[in-house]
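ok trying again, last paste got cut off:
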Amino acid sequence: MQRRQKQIQPTDLKMRAIGAVVREFRKRAGHSQERLSGDCGFDRTYISRVERGIINPTVGRLWQIADALKTPLSQLTKRMELWIADQVRLPSRRGDTKQTRRGSSPI
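nice, full thing came through this time. structure:
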């Protein structure tokens, strides 16, 4: 019996942002990956890989996704920037120690 290969875990924050935002807007629109891929003319696995941050779509393809979701591309990109900003702030919320200047307290 063959062992299942491990899923690729993306480390690039920008690619993860693209995927998270595409997924967020797709779900908000009530679309499945299959429906969105059909509306865009892509294979369903392409949308899956974008959402998981495995591949980096071109601007043209992002535009097709935005059009299929009836959302301006600028709205998608603005949300991507906000998502990244949230991720940068999250480590202090997860119990990590907050970096401070020498001699100052974290609070």
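cool. Helices lie at 13-28, 33-40, 44-51, 59-68, 73-93. The two ends are 55 Å apart (CA to CA).
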